[in-house]
Amino acid sequence: MAMSCPPQKPDVPDSKVSQILRDYFGCSLINVKRLDGYDDFSAHVTFTKQDSSGKTVQQGVIKILGQTTLSNMNSRNLLVCGFLEHLCNAGLPFSRPFRLSDGTLNPPTIQLDHPEQEACQGHYVHLLSYVEGVPLSMLDFHYDGYFLQKIGSLAARMHSVALTHPTHIPERVKSPWYLVDVELLLDRIYAVNLSAEDVSLSLRAVKDFTSCLSRHKYTESILHGDLKGDNIIMKVDKRSSPSLSGVIDFADLVKGPVVIDIAVFAVAVWIVNWPPTQSLLQIISEVLAGYTETSDALPLTALDRELLYHAIPARCVQHLVMCRYDALHDPDNVSYLLSEDVYMLGALREFYETCGKDSDLFISLHKHTTYS
Asked: Which of 85, 91, 99, 365 could form a disulfide with 285 if both were Cys (CB 3.0 to 4.6 A apart)?
């Protein structure tokens, strides 16, 4: 029986990074600094590159994906790169993919030594522009109304610009890491050592969300899919407060209801301090204000807001169950996978205690915001 690719992230020596940059992107490596990551190899690289203005020193991030077994990954990776370039051309502060030496965006595939995993189809390589700063999750940062509205506005612009892209992101393989596929969690909920009460809440959250998702048509676009503090980069200046630098990690791009990006971000903000120092309703109210008051925002209906209500606990369950499930099969990364476990469990319980009986609360949100 053919074996799948190794689940661990690739081990890539500096000499291999240098070779990849030279052979595929026409760059000469100066320095490489590894970055934290779960299943992909990521490194900050400084290199020289010849362009129309001569040889220049540039910075980027090289990502080598942890495993490649899907037959449609090549076309998906190419279209994701084209889509990301489209967003950057519209002025959005995202990491831009570098084109290869031949002028194309098609991510190269490399082979690494996996003696016991001969069936591995290879690892895709992405070279992206460097978004200067530090992840928001690493800062002691106060999420005031102004910042929450700014992220809401950024999401609105992304969703709007996404619909002007001439091609579609190809069909993906279903995964419980996509919130639109959260029904795949139902069997795993019983396998991750939750109390009977928490199993009941988790089943309720997943079933309510999937039922709501199937009943109506919602405002859709291409979603970031993982809009959280790890992927929001901030400029840090000792003379002023941290400011938004850009957004990274578009590996989870997927078509779906736009409120899913809002839900993922709102939950990430809500659990930053636990017990929470901010009301969930206030967080969502500010994000929605920034979203809906952006000039080219897609309209959000009462049905969208009802789905947002159900997406909040579904996101808590998704993160809680998937991280526990992966930790059972990946003991080397338990501390990373379970770093937010207690907060997600607390958020799930808190949601149903404070606003779990009234979805109408979400329909009228953002009428009274701090920064209007």
From this structure: 365
